[in-house]
């Protein structure tokens, strides 16, 4: 069932028109934090969102999905007994927002860091870690269609840092805009 859901989500990216509108990313991330609160609590972990988080130009539905996939992976890909910790922060460089999603998971060996963004590419068996091999493929496809880029730094045993590079929204700033 999960594989079918993930395949539908993957095939939907690119077939549905992606809107490029100003998005209050702080609001989107706060909603996601609430949605994942129970799972983090069950494992004794936490998610932290560091201000400021800029407005970005993108599609709110797809932004929600891509950050949901990254947070979900941070919870799933943990050493036994480890408490998942996720920190989300952002910075701007010129006309770009760089959103960092850092976790304390199992990490990804250097030789597999490009491969994990391809459809059905898994590094572990289902017995080790549940998954379909589509989550990060969805992340990459979504970010690319919004005109951005995904960067990864990871150390096996210590965790991963995914940086999502997206265009900054030009019309709104966090101090005067309402949540979208």
N-to-C CA distance: 31 Å
What is the helix tally? Answer: 4
Rg to the nearest angstrom?
Answer: 16 Å
Class derived from helix and strand content = alpha+beta
The average pLDDT value, as a whole number, equals 82
C-alpha geometry: globular
Helix content range? 25-40%
Largest sheet: 5 strands, mixed
The largest beta-sheet arranges its strands as: 2-4-5-7-6
Helix and strand element order? HEHEEHEEHEE
Describe this protein's structure:
32% of the residues lie in helices and 25% in strands. It is α+β, with helices and mostly antiparallel strands and 180 residues long. The protein has a 5-stranded mixed β-sheet with strand order 2-4-5-7-6. Strands 1-3 form a two-stranded antiparallel sheet. A hairpin with a 3-residue loop joins β6 and β7 (159-167). α3 packs antiparallel against α4. The longest helix is centred in the first third of the chain and has 19 residues, at 25-43. The model is unreliable at 173-180 (pLDDT under 50).
């Amino acid at each position: 069932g999960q594989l079918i859901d993930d395949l539908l989500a993957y095939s939907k990216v690119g077939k549905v028109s992606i809107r490029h509108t100003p998005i209050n990313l702080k609001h989107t991330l706060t909603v996601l934090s609430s949605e994942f609160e129970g799972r983090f609590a069950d494992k004794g972990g936490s998610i932290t969102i560091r201000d400021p988080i800029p407005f970005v130009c993108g599609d709110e539905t797809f932004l929600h999905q891509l950050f949901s996939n990254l947070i979900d992976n941070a919870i799933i890909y943990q050493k036994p007994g480890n408490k998942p910790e996720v920190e989300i922060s952002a910075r701007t460089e010129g006309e770009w927002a760089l959103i960092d999603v850092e976790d304390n998971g199992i990490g990804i060996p250097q030789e597999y860091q490009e491969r994990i963004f391809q459809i059905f590419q898994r590094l572990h068996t289902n017995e080790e870690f549940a998954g379909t091999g589509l989550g990060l493929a969805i992340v990459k496809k979504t970010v690319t269609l919004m005109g951005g880029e995904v960067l990864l730094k990871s150390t096996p045993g210590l965790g991963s840092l995914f940086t999502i590079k997206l265009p900054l929204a030009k019309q709104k700033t966090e101090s005067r805009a309402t949540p979208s």
